[in-house]
Write a structure and sequence with these properties.
Length: 323
């Protein structure tokens, strides 16, 4: 679907994912793709078909600009590479993060098990044990041909894109601003309905929620008429959506503060008390609980860094208290 002059939006299907699609965008004049899709032949043929409707093919691609390194955006690149010789561009941090990921994955079962204990989820260890043999995949890094910095300008044929580094959902996340067309390619930084997953693992030393809130402010006042996201649907009122997202995280922080009132708690205990949009904690399966716990951990880390709560390690379990 053409969404602006020379800009096409492709629906790249993701089976077994409630989001349904990843959007990949083609800047036709420069044969530049923004994001790709999940690694599957289904996704490949959907992308190839939509390219061919425009009289072009995968082999004609010149470059892929990556908003962030999650599998639903970059996984398909390996498939595309079998048919085309294009350049990949991503934020500089993406390279560091790939190396970090490989290091963590070398011992992913032990790291995950340790994290479960630290977060107070030790009683779920039996669920993890069942998957011990599933933790064998060895991630191979994606070849990145050009590393981008915040505020870089990509001067392409028919388009000029400003790189806006927006860490939070992913440390390497970027949005791309086409000032002439008054468009923002928002990746998963800002989606129209769901809130992006902001999470932290115990082996990471970051404050993704603090990053995310700053990254929301960074894009909020951009002069744009249309926001083209990585999922869901295109939308228009950026300041209103940013305000909603900030309010959502403030409300969740309030819930975390309330959960800690009068008692010390673990990450899992706090996660079990706060409200989740998808479904109640009690109905979540183990993996969803784990995602909720990493999101809770990001909120706890934010409050700890602000000095509002304290974190102590008691016999290998992190305990939180209001300061
Ligand atoms: Zn995504």
């Amino acid at each position: 679907m053409q969404v602006a002059d020379g800009v096409h939006q492709f629906k790249v299907p993701m089976r077994h994912n409630p989001l349904g699609y990843t959007y990949s965008y083609l800047l036709r004049d420069s044969m530049t793709l923004i994001d790709a899709g999940i690694p599957s032949w289904d996704a490949f043929s959907a992308l190839d078909r939509q390219l061919s409707e425009l009289g072009t093919r995968v082999k004609d691609l010149e470059r892929v600009v990556i908003t962030h390194m999650h599998n639903d955006h970059v996984g398909l690149i390996d498939y595309l590479r079998e048919h085309a010789d294009f350049k990949t561009l991503a934020h500089r941090i993406a390279e560091e993060r790939q190396l970090e990921q490989i290091r963590v994955y070398k011992d992913i079962y032990r790291n995950t098990s340790e994290e479960l204990q630290l977060m107070g989820g030790g009683s779920f260890q039996q669920f993890l044990n069942r998957f011990e043999h599933a933790f064998k995949e060895d991630p191979k890094p994606l070849r990145l041909d050009k590393l981008l910095e915040d505020d870089d300008t990509l001067d392409l044929v028919g388009a000029s894109l400003k790189v806006i580094w927006t860490p939070g959902h992913a440390a390497e996340h970027i949005c791309l601003h086409d000032a002439k067309r008054r468009i923002l390619f928002s990746g998963d930084h800002i989606l129209p309905k769901i809130t992006s997953h902001i999470s932290l693992h115990t082996w990471e030393k970051r404050d993704p929620l603090s990053d995310y809130i700053k990254s929301l402010d960074k894009v909020k006042d951009l002069p744009v008429d249309l926001i083209l996201p990585g999922h869901e649907s295109n939308f228009t009122n950026l300041p209103a959506r940013v305000a909603q997202l900030k309010q959502h995280h403030q409300a969740r922080l309030d819930e975390v503060r309330a959960a800690l009132r009068g008692r010390k708690s673990t990450v899992f205990e706090v996660a079990g008390i706060i409200h989740w949009d998808s479904r109640p904690w009690i109905l979540m399966d183990f993996w969803t609980k784990r995602m909720a716990a990493t999101e809770t951990y990001a909120h706890l880390t934010y409050l700890r860094n602000k000095g509002e709560i304290t974190e102590t390690n008691e016999d290998g379990i992190l305990q939180y208290n209001l300061a």
